[in-house]
Amino acid sequence: PAHGAMQRAMERLDPELLLLAYRSGIFPMADARDDPEVFWVEPKMRGILPLDGFRCSHSLARALRRGRFGVTCNTAFDQVLDACAAPRPDPEGAEDGDTWISEKIAASYRQLHSLGHAHSIECWQSGPNGQRLLVGGLYGVGFDRVFCGESMFSRATDASKVALAWLVCAL
Fold first, then answer.
1. Are 136 and 163 a contacting pair, CB within 8 Å?
2. Which of 36, 95, 112, 145 has CA atoms 20 to 30 A from the CA of 24?
3. Distance of CA 7 to CAs 1, 2, 13, 63, Å?
4. Cα Rg for the chain, rounded, in angstroms?
5. pLDDT digit string, tens, across residues 81-120
6. How many CB atoms lie within 10 A of CB 159?
7. 139 neighbors 120 (Cβ within 8 angstroms)
8. Alpha-carbon distance 29 to 71, whole Å?
9. 84 three-state secondary structure
10. How many CB atoms lie within 10 A of CB 154?
11. By the 8 A CB rule, do 22 and 148 touch?
């Protein structure tokens, strides 16, 4: 049992190290889902969304008014993370199996979520049998007065944009 716990601990990044990296403007990436190695990225330029200057397009405002999606926060973190890490279809219809969110990185974000430092916004729609379907969302890491958006996905038009708009309102 102790060996299993030690193995799982080695399969993710130390949460304190990960938060220190974020505070320093650095984040982890991998080359593929099954890549055990992690490399650290320190971009020279960062995209910043000024919360008081967020521009909501007419089409996004229309989508928000119509209420096409039920929106929740932190109710399906694992599902959002898995959807963000899933292969994306390329324009020719083939799937691209690469993702920067390796199993090790995903386990690290799950641990940050359990510690209250990683969060998700989820967009839901009703399926044909009335079941609730996750159709879009985003996740990221929050600390101090900063939220670093990591990834988003959309299975329905405007779902990830609606998640972003709700995130801006929440922040």
1. yes
2. 36
3. 10, 9, 12, 46
4. 17
5. 999 999 876 656 545 557 889 999 999 999 999 999 999 9
6. 25
7. yes
8. 28
9. helix
10. 17
11. yes
pTM: 0.86
Give residue 72's identity as a one-letter amino acid code.
Answer: T
Confidence band, pLDDT 50/70/90 cuts, at residue 165: very high
For residue 81, give the nearest of 33, 131, 11, 38 by alpha carbon.
Answer: 33
CB 12 within 8 A of CB 3: no
Tokens of 34: 């099954």
Residue 84, both tokens: 């963000």
Q: Cβ–Cβ contacts within 10 Å for residue 30, how many?
A: 20
Distance CA 15, CA 67 (A): 36
Q: 30 and 37 in contact (C-beta within 8 Å)?
A: yes
Instruction: Compute CA distances 133 → 74, 79, 111, 128, whole Å.
Output: 15, 11, 25, 10
Token pair recorded at residue 171: 């922040």
Measured distance CA(106)–CA(85) in Å, rounded: 8
